[in-house]
């Protein structure tokens, strides 16, 4: 008897991103991506009405943004009472009257049962493919490329500590406890959530890559189990992770083979026009010659045939930089390291220094630690420096800077400097915070190197003052969120003469992004910064972008599909799934436009 194989699509259906595909084969269950459905979430949430972190899963399930899947989510998100400590008095919750307030009884949490989810594949580290992994039980293995793992760590390290960034590190320290009395307490012994250092006797350590110096940290969280081998088996399914080009490094397709040799190809997000990325031939070689039965194909740009390459973007940006006599502002996505390299090279050839933010500097550094032959160390790049913002008190005081904004040593994320006893000890040895009369101890070579890494941006960063003095020397990484910098870079009259803003990121694709685009134009115009506008049919102004998309064009997708010739094709990650039928008419391929939540037997 043939094994039963089925596919269910919980996201990415007639929408761009939010892919969540469940593949089942005789008891083996895997998910292909578990990304945030940005468009759907954006229908309800915005800046001042955000997801409630203590109730996130309850709320997102009610909105239908997350699917009801048994044996997947962590119990701590489905059952408040599971967070109780020994001795917590749960009778304080009105459990009899309203149990369903405290427990979601409609879904079974993950509990290591045979029927539970066996693994989750992540094609790449964009939020519309990875973010909702945050709610998945940490015992479930994540399968991805090594680069995606490193990226997910780096993104967690520089993000705020909300529950939505737990796709790498999972915080175990939140516990339900009885409130102890303090001078602020009105109702002692009532329940509250508290951070509890459960395993404070356990230590984790990291080794400084340059010096070998070991930093230690108390364990208050766990790291998800990422498996990064390119081939393997999960239950009855064999898999292969096939590298693809995309606007983030480490992207991959997932190829699965069932026990009766059905081959299923999930493309993830895919392009063939990037730099140093697999060509279509190389990609097809990775997929292999054996026939593909089912292809799940992205179609973000299925209706577009614009054919630009990253090289075109490079020429475009370089020309612009050379034309401008003042400061050049450049806007691009910080995870797009290909675009970073393009701009760095263009700036170099135009004789300018490229100023980046600490977030991308940290990301580049982590990629370099992973593979020094492929990714250059940002510290060693001649014409790339970190732009040092005025933070907090606006005094350029060293204490104004969060750890990753001070240098490269943020390997344990958002923990306060105080917790990292080693760095504080080095600071003490250097005499920082001591009376002048006290003895300053010599640092070992390792300690010196570690200190230099940790304070790299503080010591070597370029300030607004320097940019204002010599604007023609720099290309500044800049987005709407950096608008406050314009106050510091401009003259006392609030102008930045002969300056130009280059948009090197995608066009806005939501109402909110269009509003932000308009606001950014207001800022630029106020400060006398020039840019290339276009006018749409409604008379609205937009930026002209120096950009190529992370997605293959319609023509490339059709060429790819007709070469692979799958028996069945499921178009996803597109607002125009019907376009595939039109373009593949007469090809003999059965095209199935998936319906959300429906299971398809294969
Ligand atoms: Zn996507
Ligand atoms: Zn993507």
SS-based structural class?
A: alpha/beta
Overall body shape: globular
CATH topology (fold) name of the domain at 5-52 and 59-64 and 116-168 and 225-302 and 552-601: Metallo-beta-lactamase, Chain A
Bound compounds, each kind once, are: zinc ion
Largest sheet: 7 strands, mixed
Unreliable segments (pLDDT under 50, ≥5 consecutive)? 411-419
CATH architecture of the domain at 5-52 and 59-64 and 116-168 and 225-302 and 552-601: 4-Layer Sandwich
CA-atom Rg in angstroms: 26 Å
DSSP helix fraction = 25-40%
Strand tally is: 29
Strand order of the largest sheet: 12-5-4-3-2-1-29
The proportion of residues in beta strands is 15-25%
Can you tell me the CATH superfamily of the domain at 5-52 and 59-64 and 116-168 and 225-302 and 552-601?
Ribonuclease Z/Hydroxyacylglutathione hydrolase-like
Keywords, separated by commas or semicolons:
602 residues; alpha/beta; Metallo-beta-lactamase, Chain A; Rossmann fold; seven-stranded mixed beta sheet; globular; binds zinc ion
What does this structure look like?
Among the domains are: 5-52 and 59-64 and 116-168 and 225-302 and 552-601, Ribonuclease Z/Hydroxyacylglutathione hydrolase-like (Metallo-beta-lactamase, Chain A), CATH 3.60.15.10; 310-397 and 460-543, Rossmann fold. It is 27% helix and 21% strand. The protein is built from 19 helices and 29 strands. It has a seven-stranded mixed sheet with strand order 12-5-4-3-2-1-29. Strands 13-14-15-16-17-27-28 form a seven-stranded mixed sheet. A seven-stranded parallel sheet has the order 21-20-19-22-18-23-24. The longest helix is centred in the last third of the chain and has 16 residues, at 511-526. The protein is globular, with a radius of gyration of 26 Å. The structure holds zinc ion (ZN) (2 copies). Residues 17, 126, 128-129, 269, 573 line the site of one zinc ion.
């Amino acid at each position: 008897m043939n094994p039963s194989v089925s596919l269910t699509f919980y996201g990415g259906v007639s929408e761009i991103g939010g892919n969540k595909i469940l593949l089942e084969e005789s008891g083996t269950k895997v998910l292909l991506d578990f990304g945030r459905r940005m468009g759907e979430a954006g229908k309800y949430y915005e800046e001042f009405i955000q997801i409630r972190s203590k109730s996130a899963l309850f709320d997102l399930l009610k909105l239908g943004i997350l699917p009801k899947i048994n044996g997947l989510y962590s119990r701590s998100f489905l059952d408040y009472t599971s967070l109780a400590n020994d001795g917590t008095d749960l009778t304080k919750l009105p459990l009899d009257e309203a149990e369903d307030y405290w427990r979601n009884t409609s879904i079974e949490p993950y509990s290591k049962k045979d029927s539970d989810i066996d693994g989750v594949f992540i094609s790449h580290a964009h939020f519309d493919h990875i973010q909702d992994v945050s709610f998945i039980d940490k015992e479930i293995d994540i399968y991805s490329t090594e680069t995606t793992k490193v990226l997910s760590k780096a993104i967690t390290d520089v993000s705020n500590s909300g529950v939505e960034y737990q796709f790498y590190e999972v915080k175990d320290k939140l516990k339900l406890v009885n409130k102890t009395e303090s001078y602020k307490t009105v109702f002692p012994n009532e329940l509250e959530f508290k951070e509890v250092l459960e395993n404070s006797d356990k230590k984790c350590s990291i080794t400084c890559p340059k010096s070998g110096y070991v930093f230690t940290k108390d364990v208050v969280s766990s790291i998800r189990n990422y498996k990064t081998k390119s081939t393997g088996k999960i239950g009855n399914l064999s898999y292969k992770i096939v590298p693809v080009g995309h606007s983030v490094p480490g992207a991959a397709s997932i190829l699965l083979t069932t026990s009766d040799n059905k081959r299923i190809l999930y493309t993830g997000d895919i392009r063939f026009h990037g730099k140093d990325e697999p060509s279509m031939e190389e990609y097809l070689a990775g997929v292999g010659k054996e026939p593909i039965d089912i292809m799940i194909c992205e179609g973000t740009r299925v209706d577009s045939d614009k054919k630009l390459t990253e090289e075109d973007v490079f020429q475009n940006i370089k020309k612009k930089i050379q034309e401008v006599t003042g400061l050049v502002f450049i806007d691009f996505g910080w995870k797009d390291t290909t675009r970073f390299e393009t701009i760095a090279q263009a700036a170099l050839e135009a004789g300018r220094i490229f100023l980046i933010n600490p977030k991308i500097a940290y990301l580049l550094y982590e990629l370099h630690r992973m593979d020094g032959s492929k990714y250059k160390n940002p510290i060693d790049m001649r014409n790339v420096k970190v732009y040092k913002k005025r933070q907090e008190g606006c005094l350029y005081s060293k204490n104004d800077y969060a750890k990753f904004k001070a240098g490269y040593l943020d390997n344990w994320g958002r923990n306060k400097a105080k917790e990292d006893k080693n760095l504080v000890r080095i600071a003490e040895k250097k005499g920082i915070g001591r009376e002048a009369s006290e003895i300053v101890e010599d640092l070992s070579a390792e300690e010196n190197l570690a200190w230099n890494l940790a304070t790299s941006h503080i010591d070597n960063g370029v300030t607004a003052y320097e940019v204002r003095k010599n604007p023609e020397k720099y290309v500044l990484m800049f987005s709407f969120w950096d608008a406050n910098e314009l106050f510091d870079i401009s003259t006392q009259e609030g102008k930045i003469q002969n300056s130009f803003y280059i948009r090197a990121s995608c066009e806005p694709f939501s109402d909110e992004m269009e509003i932000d685009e308009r606001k950014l134009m207001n800022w630029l115009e106020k400060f006398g910064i020039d840019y290339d506008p276009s006018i749409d049919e409604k008379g609205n102004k937009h930026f002209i972008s120096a950009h190529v998309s992370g997605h293959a064009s319609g023509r490339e997708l059709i060429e790819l599909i007709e070469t692979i010739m799958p028996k069945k094709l499921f178009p996803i990650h597109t607002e125009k799934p019907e376009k595939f039928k039109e373009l593949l008419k007469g090809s003999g391929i059965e095209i199935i436009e998936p319906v959300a939540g429906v299971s398809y037997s294969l």
